[in-house]
User: Fold these one by one.
Assistant:
Number 1:
Amino acid sequence: MGTWPDLLLSIGVGIALAAACGLRVFLPLFMASVLAHFDMGGIGLRDGFGWMAEWPAVIAFGVATVAELLAYYIPLVDHLLDVLAVPLSAVAGTTVALSTFVDLPPLLSWGLALIAGGGLAGLISTGTATARVASTVKTAGLGNPVVATVETAGALVLSLLAWFLPVIAIGLVIVLLVAFVRLGFRRRT
């Protein structure tokens, strides 16, 4: 078991990557896969998740990422993806969080990955799906490519920050969650 700062860093990386899965399901998995494959900074992957850094996973995540990114620019397909993305993002968020919880005991790793990783990814994905519906209603779908671009950029930036500057990434996730909660309360009142 690592030191407390290392454990907290490991948790921060996993939660920030999981949050990015709420914006794009495959992009954070692809980024973690590539960065782990080339051993570029970050904290590495947990035992049993070395497969994520192997070429077959890098290629599979890369193809899935390109397909997902392109599909969000096709009208109606973007809404179908949102329906699929909510549960898939929870699975991806759980997986990517668990993969980075390097020195945590299995029970704690799984609990945190399911609740914090999968829960956060699912929550964010639900929020982005809601934003897409609002965009469709207000702009007749013409604003959806802008929403898709912002989501993709957010997933990319958050994934890179999670890997290289996890403290900043966690701060950004907290700010986004606070904004998300405030926006939700404003809509109810």
Number 2:
Amino acid sequence: MNIEEVRTYFLSKSGAGEDMPFHIPVPVFKVGDKMFGLINIHEPDRVSINLKYDKEKIDDLREAFVEIQPGYHMNKTHWNTIYLDGNLEDDFIKELIDISYRIVFKSLTKTKQKEILGE
């Protein structure tokens, strides 16, 4: 996936929005004011994103894929940096985005979840 495809997919999630809260131009994607992903700029020659993942399974994922590393400038217990220039399939990258979104969405209050879902 290229960066525009990733951005479009981030924004396709219910209630997702894009923000740039840092002092540098890093696009951050949130649901209910909580971050579920970002596009990295720390390596201009490599495109990568940061996503949350289940902490019980995070080490297995990192061991299985060289493109998945502990989250750059993030809590490494919960966040991964995923390099998009490797051999990861687009559907797998989308699945990782979905997982990150679900983790964050579930952490929202039931009221906020219903508001986002239009219930």
